Each structure stands twice: as structure tokens, then as C-alpha cells.
Amino acid sequence: MNYVEPYTGGAAIALALLFEEYASTIHINDLSRPVFAFWRTVLDQNKWLCKRIEKVSLTMTEWNRQRAVYDKRDSADLDELGFATLFLNRTNRSGIIAGGVIGGKKQAGQWGLDARFGKLGLIERIKKVARYRERIRLYQSDALTFTKTVVPKISGKVFLFYDPPYIESGEKLYLNDYGIEDHRALADSIIALKKPWVVTYDYAAVGHNLYPAHRRMVYGLPYSAQDRYDGREVMFLSNGIRLPEEWNYSGTFALTPPRSAYPLYGKMEGMKARPEMVEGSEAATRFMSALKTVLSVPKAAVPNPFKKAEKKPRRPSAPKR
Ligand SMILES: C[S@@+](CC[C@H](N)C(=O)[O-])C[C@H]1O[C@@H](n2cnc3c(N)ncnc32)[C@H](O)[C@@H]1O
User: Fold this and answer.
1) Structural domain boundaries of the chain?
2) Which of 48, 49, 137, 165 could form a disulfide with 176 if both were Cys (CB 3.0 to 4.6 A apart)?
3) Ligand 1 mutation target, pool 4, 5, 7, most atoms within 8 A of CB
4) pLDDT at 319
5) Max Cα separation, the chain?
6) Rounded alpha-carbon distances, angstroms, from residue 31 to 23, 34, 221
């Protein structure tokens, strides 16, 4: 099975599926040059990258140096940028650039910038990814273009997972140039795919009526004071895919194992798929042809169900003798 992630970021799911042998090949795409540079370096400059990790000093001087490389991300050397991306991901709060360095610039906090930089663990993981390089295809393309040009050429069984940037995100977490019209254009091309897919979003996607004819699973933390899912997110599902049995029951189901520290609950919403439902452009063609048939019938030929039936003339009774 070819597993495809057009907005790959950290590629956590793709790699898990590869390592667990659910996917034979993973196709990971990200438009961001720093993200692409990181993966390119992992795959093509593995030894060099591991040496850099081993030798790097975890100080504010180094942090400033790596930040300067990142600030020139449009032109920086790809390998240097790949390393800078990894360095900042490990030394910044929540792994994001906007988060700032762990412990602050004065390094006076409880945790220092080295708190999440376990060198041995990182090297081991990067070496493991490189051992799978023959089964990893890396792309740097806009996801919409990628969907239209690369995805149709992937042969064999394909499953796609789209995790686009949020529609309403308080902070600028990732590269995100999308307006709602871009999200709609993306939805159109995903729905037209003849391959199974899932798409995840913040719940705002439902308010914007994206994927209105598809099932969706809403998920989030169990309960908050506002009587709603806290930090709700939504997963839209293509019609062809078979879901776990309990998802099909009405009500709420747990997505995490029992007694998990961060329980997540899900609930199905939206349209129920039926076997006769057809995906994508074929469905649109059938709909248009049905519409044409309906419109071609003269109005007079269609009985009006609201019109009162005309009284039938009474049969003359036989004359009394
Ligand atoms: C919500 S994140 C995905 C996170 C990913 N699922 C993970 O677990 O790390 C969105 C990703 O999409 C990338 N991105 C943003 N706009 C893009 C676009 N137009 N085409 C492709 N990738 C894009 C960002 O660089 C970011 O890595």
C-alpha cells in the first residue's frame, strides 16, 4: 500500500505505518523549504547529519547561529537548513519557530535548551529512517498541485491523509498561506480522487461547509465548561473506506486506550455512506444526467401531489320503477 501525506510536517504517522509494515512505500510532501530540507538531509546526507548532531554544542551561541541560517531559509544551503530546522525544532518551545527557545534567551528557566535534545535517541531515529530510504519518496510541492499531478501517477493501492493548515489558528504554527477559497479548491480536488482519503481540520471546516456530502468524525477532549468538545477537530472520510465497528454506533466512542492520560473521544456526524454512493466526478456526472432527465419531462406530465383531486361525476342511478 502506498501511503501519501501531502502536508507531511514531522511525518510521524507516515513513518509509524512504514516501520509497522502497513505501508510498502510512503510519499511525503511539504511545500516548506525548511521541512523539505530536513527530510532531504535525513535521506541523502544521513552520516553528515548524525555527525553534526553528535558534535553540536547546545548553547545560546549555537542557537543564534542556527536561527540565522533559518532566517535565510529561502537561499540557505539545503543541508545546513535541514540541520538548522532540526536544531530549532528540538530547542524551541513546542518544537515551533514562533515558540522561542526553551528556557528563554537568558536560559534562566527550569529547563534549558538541551531539554529535548537527546543526541543518542535522535541519531538512532534518523539512522532508522535512512535504512528505509528506498521506500520513501520525498516531494516539495504545493499540496493542490501535488494532488493533481503526482497523486494520479502513483500506481497500486493508495491511501491519502491530508492534514492541511488550520482554517482558524490563533498562532501561526506552520507555513500557512491559505484562504478559505484555497481550502475549497483543495476539497474539490480531493473529492474528485478515485482513491480513499481522510482529511483532518479544526472544526471551523464544518462551519464553512467543506465536504458537506461526506461522513465526518468529530474528536476532542471529553468535556469542557462550555458543554462542547474542547479544541474540537474533525476528520472527513471518503465514502469507500470501512470504519471500525464502534464508530458506526451512534454516540461517543473513545479513540484512546482506557485510562489514557490524554483521552480523546470521537463522534460521527454528517452523511452516512451507502454502497450505492459513488465518489467524485462520476457522482457529479450521474447527478447532472439525472437532473437533465427530470428537466426534460414536460411539467404537465408530472402529477401535482398538492392539487385536490377533481370530483368524479357521480354515476347516474338507475331509474326507479
Ligand atoms: C498542519 S501541518 C501538518 C503536520 C503534520 N501532520 C505533522 O504531524 O507534523 C501542515 C504542514 O503543511 C505544510 N504546508 C503548508 N502549506 C502547504 C502547501 N500549500 N502545500 C504543501 N504543504 C504545505 C506546512 O509546512 C506544514 O508542515
Assistant:
1) 2-199, 200-298
2) 165
3) 7
4) 62
5) 123
6) 23, 9, 30
